[in-house]
Design brief:
0% strand; mainly alpha
Length: 123
């Protein structure tokens, strides 16, 4: 049904005829259609999401949940222990190598958090 409407449209037949006759027109028309589609999509996204992404990200970071806050604290402590061991050159080479491989030696447990003990910095 839509193809019948296009075939009857004088403007569409003109575009097709010019596209067959001139590769330059075809490339220009294609570019205009792509740019127009991209611009309309951008306008639709901006209209449906008026609040900027950076403001949303800042708000989410400020209102991070308890899990996020606990994990941030634990990660800071682990990083401090790792950096202290590397700085003082004492027993941190294994932990440092594992950290580079994305592994963690963060607690001395069997994998559960029940009764877990943090590594802790040695004074």
């Amino acid at each position: 049904m839509a193809s019948e409407l296009l075939l009857k449209s004088r403007a569409w037949r003109t575009v097709v005829a010019l596209g067959k006759a001139s590769p330059t027109f075809f490339a220009g028309f294609s570019a205009c259609v792509l740019v127009g589609s991209y611009a309309l999509g951008g306008l639709a996204m901006a209209g449906s999401n008026p609040e900027g992404d950076s403001r949303k990200e800042d708000r989410l970071r400020r209102r991070g949940g308890l899990d996020h806050q606990v994990m941030a604290k634990v990660n800071k402590e682990r990083l401090q222990v790792l950096l202290d061991e590397v700085k003082e050159r004492r027993g941190g080479s294994e932990r440092y190598a594992k950290a580079l491989n994305g592994e963690s030696m963060g607690t001395h447990t069997s994998g559960t958090t029940v009764g877990a003990q943090g590594i802790g910095r040695k004074a």
